[in-house]
Write a structure and sequence with these properties.
Rossmann fold; 13 strands; binds nicotinamide-adenine-dinucleotide; about 325 residues; alpha/beta; 9 helices; globular
Length: about 325
C-alpha cells in the first residue's frame, strides 16, 4: 500500500492503526482526517504522515484529495460516546461521513474498511453472529446499522469493490485514556484500583463483555483490506468476560485485594452480555485473536505500569 487514508486517526483505535500501518508500510504516505472532537494529538506523537483537521460529514473529499488516489481507506471517525442522545447529530455526522467516504472511493473502487459495532446487536444475551437481524438500542447503534445498510447498498452496485465492516466488540488497550467515561471498563477499573480505590460496577457485576485487545483489532482491520468480497465481520476475542472477572484479574495483576463497590445501573438500555462468534473472520482471514481477556489484561497492566502516565504510547 502506497497511499492510505485513515479517518478518526487521532482516536483510540485509529491511532493504534495509523502507527501500525506506519511501521508495516514505512514508505507509504498516510493521511489522517480527524476533527479532534474526541481524539487527542498525544495519540499521534510518533506519527510522521499528514493530518487534515476536518469533519468527515462535511468535507469535500474529491476536492481535498483531487491529486491523490488511495490504495485503501480505513474509516474510524465517528461519535463514539454512546450516551450522546442527540439523534440529529449522531445520525448526521456518523452516516453522512460514511456516505462521503463511499462516494469518494467508488470511482476507483478503493477498498474501504469501516468501523461498525457490536452495539448493532442490541441487548440480546446470546453469542452474536453476523447474520442476526440488528436490534439497535440507542441512536449510536442505530447510526452504525445505517453504515452497514449503506455499505451493502453500495457493494451491490459495484460487485468488484470491497467494502468491509468490522463489528468491534469492547476494545481495550493503549491510547484510550482520552475517552474518559467512554473508555473500556478494563481501563476505568484499572484507573480506580491503581489509586487504591474500590472498583465500582453495576449491581451483581455479572454483566459480560467480549473484551478484545486493540492489538488484535488492528491486526484484523489491516487484514480486512484483503477480504475476498464485501461483507461484515465480528471483531472480538470470542470470550465473554464478566466485570467481576475483570476485577479479579486486575487485583491479581496489581497485587491488591480491593473489594467491589456495587451500585444500581441507571441506564434503561444496557447490554448485559456481548460475545462474538469469530468463525467468519477465521474462515476468510485465518484470523484467531491473540489475546484471551485474562492474558490481555495482564499485558495491558504491565504496559500501563511502565508508562509515566495514562498516555501510554507503545
Ligand atoms: N472502542 C470500542 O470499544 C469500539 C467498539 C465498537 C465500535 N467502535 C468504533 O470504532 C471507531 C473508533 O472508535 P474509538 O474507540 O477509537 O473512539 P475515539 O473517540 O477515540 O475515536 C474516534 C475518532 O474520530 C474522530 N471523529 C469523530 N467524528 C468525526 C467527524 N465527523 N469527522 C472527523 N473526525 C471525527 C474523533 O475526533 C476521534 O479521534 C468508531 O467508529 C467507533 O464507533 C469502537
Amino acid at each position: 500500500m502506497k497511499n492510505i487514508l485513515v479517518t478518526g486517526g487521532a482516536g483510540f483505535i485509529g491511532s493504534n492503526l495509523v502507527l501500525a500501518l506506519q511501521e508495516r508500510y514505512p514508505d507509504a504516505w498516510i493521511v489522517v482526517v480527524d476533527d479532534f472532537r474526541s481524539g487527542d494529538f498525544r495519540n499521534l506523537q510518533s506519527y510522521r504522515g499528514d493530518i487534515v483537521a476536518a469533519d468527515v460529514s462535511r468535507l469535500d473529499f474529491g476536492r481535498q484529495f483531487s491529486r491523490m488516489t488511495f490504495d485503501a481507506i480505513f474509516h474510524q471517525a465517528s461519535i463514539t460516546d454512546t450516551t450522546v442522545h442527540d439523534q440529529r447529530l449522531q445520525v448526521h455526522d456518523n452516516v453522512e461521513g460514511f456516505r462521503r467516504i463511499l462516494e469518494f472511493a467508488a470511482p476507483n473502487l478503493t477498498p474501504v474498511v469501516y468501523a461498525s459495532s457490536a452495539a448493532t446487536y442490541g441487548t440480546r444475551r446470546t453469542v452474536m453472529r453476523e447474520d442476526m437481524a440488528p436490534e439497535p438500542a440507542n441512536v449510536y447503534a442505530f447510526s452504525k446499522v445505517q453504515l452497514d445498510h449503506l455499505a451493502r447498498a453500495f457493494s451491490k452496485q459495484y460487485l468488484a469493490w470491497r467494502i468491509v465492516g468490522l463489528r468491534y466488540f469492547n476494545v481495550y488497550g493503549p491510547h484510550e485514556a482520552h475517552k474518559n467515561a467512554a473508555s473500556s471498563m478494563i481501563f476505568q477499573l484499572y484507573s480506580q484500583m491503581v489509586c487504591g480505590k474500590r472498583p465500582r460496577v453495576f449491581a451483581g457485576g455479572e454483566q459480560k463483555r467480549d473484551f478484545v485487545s486493540v492489538t488484535d483489532v488492528v491486526d484484523l482491520t489491516i487484514r480486512a483490506v484483503e477480504a475476498p468480497a464485501s461483507g461484515v465481520y465480528n471483531c472480538g476475542s470470542g470470550v465473554a468476560y464478566s466485570f467481576n472477572q475483570v476485577i479479579a484479574s486486575l487485583n491479581e495483576c496489581l497485587g491488591t485485594n480491593l473489594e467491589t463497590d456495587y451500585f444500581e445501573n441507571p441506564y434503561r438500555f444496557y447490554q448485559p452480555h456481548t460475545e462474538a462468534d469469530m468463525s467468519r473472520a477465521k474462515r476468510d482471514f485465518g484470523f484467531v485473536p491473540q489475546y484471551h481477556p485474562k492474558a490481555g489484561i495482564a499485558h495491558y497492566v504491565e504496559t500501563l505500569k511502565s508508562a509515566d502516565s495514562a498516555w501510554v504510547t507503545d
